[in-house]
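Form P-L/3: holo structure prediction, ligand hydroxy diiron-OXO moiety.
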Amino acid sequence: MIKKKIEEAFNKQINEEIFSFYLYLSMAAWFDSINLKGFAHWMKIQAQEEMFHAMKFYNHILERGGNVGLAEIAGPKTKWESLLNVYEESLAHEGHITGCINDLMDLVIEEKDHAARSLLQWFVDEQVEEEANFSEMVDKLKMVGNHNPLLLMQDKEMGQRQPGPNPFFKTGAEQ
Ligand code: OFO
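OUTPUT (holo model):
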C-alpha cells in the first residue's frame, strides 16, 4: 500500500509530466505553424514520451492501492522567438523536472519506500538522457545559426526520430 504522502507527491508529478506533454505539444504546434515539419515531428514524439512518464506514475499509484487525482494543467506558451529559444527553454524545463525527481527520490528514501525508489531510479536515469538530448540540440542550433540550408537539413534529420515503445498517438509524420 502506498503512503498518502507519497501518493500526493506522485500525483503532483503526474501533473508536471502532463504539463511537459502540453508544453512540448505546444512547441510542436509552433513548429508546424512555421512549416518545420521535422522539428514538429521530433517534439510530438517528445510529448508522447512525457505522457508515458505520467502513466508510469499513474500505474504505480494504482498498482499499490492508491488513488490517482488529476489536477488542472496550466496552459503553456504558444510562441517562441527562435528555434534556439525553444530548445533553451526545454533544457531549462528538464532541469526543473530533474529537480522534482531528485526531491521525490529524497522523500521515498526518507520514507523507506523501496518500490517507489525502484520506479524513481528509472526516472533518475531518464533525466540524464532528457537533459543530454536537449543540450545536444542547443549546441547544434548554435552551430547552425541563421544558415537556412543547414537548418533545413537539420529539420530533415529531426523527422527521423522514432517513437518509443508506448505510443499514445500517431505523430502524423509516419504517413
Ligand atoms: Fe518527463 O522528462 Fe521530460 O519533462
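COMMENT: The pocket of hydroxy diiron-OXO moiety is lined by residues 17, 20, 50, 53, 94, 97, 130 (CB under 6 Å).
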